[in-house]
Amino acid sequence: MDAVTALNRLTARAERAFEQEAAARQRLTGALVTPQAPHLDGAMEAVLNTAAIAKPWALLMRRVEKIGVIDALAAQREEAMEQLLWFGHGMSTSQVTNAKNAADLDGLRKFITRTDSIADDIDEETPAPAPIPELFEVERNTLRAIRDTGLVFKKAHVLDGGIRTENREGTIAPAVDRVQWVIRKGYAVVDTSAGLSDGQAVTLTARGEAALAG
Fold first, then answer.
1. Nearest-angstrom CA–CA distance, 4 and 128
2. Cα→Cα distances 8→37, 43, 125, Å
């Protein structure tokens, strides 16, 4: 499952939790303004339960905006599990506090249960690294030159603002187009923080090192 699909499913479940809490609060409000309203205790309990269920979903949605769906889901599930492990089980003299604590615990359990399948699917379908194709010898030579001879890009002595390659070791440098090709393929990177007049160093990436080792 990709991140977009996971976000859509999580958002649908979160919105359902929010709708249930809003409906419970509306029923309680109606009961409170009705003289001798029946089932007032049940309406109050429903608000406690639905609010406890909605709370971790609200926290998850705020986290998603900051760090993305995959990291947010992992962080929220970890936090919920820690709260379940360390939640105080002492009884209060207030029955309302005891009921709220019990509802909060149940809300955390439901959140973990209802996100289990999504979390598992994201983990199972993490894309594998792209395979590295076999290189021709001329491409390997370009990578070796980058790795071993201190290759840099420098400003060409022409009016069009072109670039040239140069080796700090004084050896023959690969042509610019060959170096640019390995950069486009992700085998190397160029340090653009330096100026072309001083020389922009070209170095291998981990993919480039793996290609040479293969």
1. 18
2. 39, 31, 17
- CB neighbours of residue 109 within 10 Å: 15
For residue 17, what pLDDT is reported? 92
Q: How far is CA 153 from CA 29, 124, 213, in A?
A: 72, 42, 25
Q: Which of 105, 52, 51 is nearest to 83 (CA)?
A: 105
**The 163-167 sheet, strands edge to edge:** 163-167, 151-155, 200-204, 188-190
Global pTM reads 0.54
User: For residue 20, what are its two tokens?
Assistant: 């249930």
pLDDT tens track for 100-125: 888 888 899 999 999 988 888 775 44
Token digits for 38?
A: 């029946």
Letter string b/e over residues 131-162, b meaning 16 or more CB atoms within 10 A of that residue's CB: ebeebeeebeebbebbbebbbbbbeeeeeeee
Question: In the numeric block, which tokens belong to residue 35?
Answer: 């003289």
Measuring CA to CA, how many Å separate 12 from each of 15, 83, 191? 5, 24, 44
Question: 38-50 burial string, b = 16+ CB within 10 Å, else e?
Answer: eeeeebbebbbbb
Q: Which residue has the higher pLDDT, 106 or 84?
A: 106
Q: Give 83's contacts (C-beta < 8 A, 6+ positions apart).
A: 108
